[in-house]
Each structure stands twice: as structure tokens, then as C-alpha cells.
Amino acid sequence: MAVWDDLVGQDRVVDQLTAAARAAGATVEAGRGAAPAQGGNASLMTHAWLFTGPPGAGQVTAARAFAAALQCTSPDLALGGTPGCGFCDGCHTVLAGSHADVKYVRTDGLSIGVGDMRDLVLRASSYPTGGRWSVILVDAAHRLTEAAANALLKGVEEPSPRTVWLLCAPSVQDVLPTIRSRCRLLVLRTPAADAVADMLVRRDGVDPETARLAALAGQGDIERARRLAVDEQARTRRAEVLRIPLEVADIGGCLTAAQRLVDTAKADAEALAETQDAKETGDLKAAYGAAEGGKAPRGMAGAVKELEKRQKSRATRTRRETLGVALLDLLGFYRDVLAIQLGSTGVLANEDQRQALNRVAQAGPAEGTLRRIEAVLACRTALDRNVDPLLAVEAMTVALRAG
């Protein structure tokens, strides 16, 4: 299976990246004194790329596939084959996350610090050790602190001849102008629901009707659609969120719904902590050679404290992400309500909630639905500004009642 097969509905982006990978291969072969592969054009390749697009469209998937194509060693390349075969050692190790010349950067916390970025810039100044290119893939480049972004700018301004930066962010506005001006921009689009459903049927063995409903409910987010298709718990939690518009008839219902939503997000974070935090702490102590019940080795206390700080930040991020998914589900619900009120005949994202949608649509005018959409958006903004989650969600549910 080629590395591009996981990109759903992104044919234009795949064509651009394939051409760039072919040009990059020609550059490598020319540097070795060999005859370049057919079709190479150096102008198609550049040292820095910025992948943007709506949530779940596949920015990181596209960047990882491009990294694999850059390291592809398929013998078919000399005959004009497409880079990114998916079977050679280069492709396989990149996709498995074990390639020595591909650094994948993702933070579990709320931001990427300047220390980590300086280390990456130093690494970017060296040639690849065994692969064709040295690739640094930064997931969530919008989470860079100001100091980290300035450090990244240094690396992008003065690139090594065989280093490629791959940055992923929700939009071009989320990246410093000085950085994005030095990157080639690739904008991924929201994949069609039919394409996502087809992928779920082919790759995950989901029955067609479940795949169709999951693809619609995912609203273009491929991973969200996959979870809804294969995870019963994810479907249950979505159903609980979509009950909220029917439960805010009084203040008591508003407060109860808000508390349940926040408690669910907290439970998700705690579940992750139980399985991941304990393992990380155990691995760290083992690395320091700490004996059970014995005295902590020198330096371990500081390392444990730093790890606990990162784990706390990750828990906060998990709560926010869970609430963010719930708010997107609510937005989709009210958007469908508005579509019904305005007489739209298009396919709704929440087809499986048609009865509830009709009930809410008949209960008030379209103007009230627009105000409810604004309330959900205001809650998202409040969470981004570190407002207490319970207060922000309670304010939203009360506003949903008022309409």
C-alpha cells in the first residue's frame, strides 16, 4: 500500500507532494553523481513546508507520507516510479516512527518550548546519517511559544542543504508571518463524507450504513469518523452530548448537563493518566536505577518533578480536547437545526438524530438557533482563554436555554 493511500480526498495535495518528492530524489542522485530519476524538477522542491487545513483533514498524515516519500528507496524510482511505495525500508521505518533521519515532534502539553526547538535547529544543521534527507516534522506548530517560534525561524532561514522542515497547523494565521513566508503552503480541504465512508468500509471493515453515518457525524474529521465507526464508547458519549439541546429547558437541567460534560472530559484525562503516567514514571525510575523502597538516586527527584509537570499539562490538554470535540458536535447539531428551519434539502451531519433535530427546530425561530451557535462558539473562546471549564460550559448551557 502506497504511503499516499491514507490521504482521503486530497488528490491535488498528493500530486504536489509526489512531484516534490520526485524532484528531491533527483537532487540527491545528482549530488551522488548518478543519473537522476525520470521526471525530476528541482523547482518543485523546497526546504520548508506548511500543512494547514480543517481539523481531521490529515495535515500530519500528509506530512508523514511526504517524509516517507523523501526517504523512499524503491528500485522503481529509477524507472519513473512514484516515490512513497510503502514497502521499502525507507518508507516502512518512517511510517513506523523509527527512521533515524526523521524527527517527529509532538507535545503532550499545551505548548512547545524554546529548549526543545533549539535542539531541533541544532540537529537540522547536520546532514542525514543514512537516509536521503533529514526531515523534521512539527505537529501542532501553532503551539510553539514565542521564543520557540523565533528559534525555529533561525533554522528555517538558514537551512542545511539536505534538511526539510514539515510544519502542521490549523491555518496559516496560526504561524508567525516570518516563518510562513519561508514555507511552501499546502492547504488540505475537508474530505467528502462519501470518500471517508468508503475508506472506513475498505480499511476498517465497517458496514456501509454505519460508515455513512459515522462519516457524516465526523464532519470531515477522518479520525473522529473512524472512532465513531469502531468505538461504541465514542458513539455513546456523542449521544450524551447531543442530548443537551433537549435537557436545557430549566436552570437545573442546564447545570446538570454542564457538570456531566465537564466530568466526562475529566474522566477521559484520568483514564489516560492511569495507563500512561504510571508507565512513564516507572520507566523514568528504572532509567535512574531506583530500587523499590530504596533511596532515590541523585538527580531523579528533579526529573520526576519535571515529568509530573508535563503529565499535568497533558491532562489539561486532554480535558480541553474532549470538551472541544463535544462542542463541535453541538455546533453540528445546531447547524443541522438551522438547515431544517431554513428549508434546506441537503444531507445533515446528524442524520441519526433526525427526530431530535426536528423537535428543536420546531421549538423556536432560526434567530434563536443562531444565538445558540454563537453561545457554543463563545464557550470555545472562553476555554482557549483558560476560563474555568465548568463556568464556561455552564454559561453556554444557560445561553442555550435562553435562545
Could you characterize what this model shows?
It is a single chain. With 403 residues, this protein is mainly alpha-helical. The chain contains 16 helices and 5 strands. The chain has helices at residues 11-31, 59-71, 89-96, 114-124, 146-157, 177-180, 193-204, 208-218, 222-230, 232-241, 244-247, 251-288, 300-341, 354-362, 366-384, 389-402; strands at residues 48-52, 102-105, 134-138, 163-168, 184-187. Strands 2-3-4-1-5 form a 5-stranded parallel sheet, covered by helices on one side. The longest helix is centred in the last third of the chain and has 42 residues, at 300-341. Residues 33-40 have low confidence and may be disordered.
List the helices and strands and how they pair.
Elements: H1 11-31, E1 48-52, H2 59-71, H3 89-96, E2 102-105, H4 114-124, E3 134-138, H5 146-157, E4 163-168, H6 177-180, E5 184-187, H7 193-204, H8 208-218, H9 222-230, H10 232-241, H11 244-247, H12 251-288, H13 300-341, H14 354-362, H15 366-384, H16 389-402
Parallel strand pairs: 1-4, 1-5, 2-3, 3-4
Helix pairs in contact: 1-2, 2-3, 4-5, 7-8, 7-9, 8-9, 9-10, 12-13, 12-16, 13-14, 13-15, 15-16
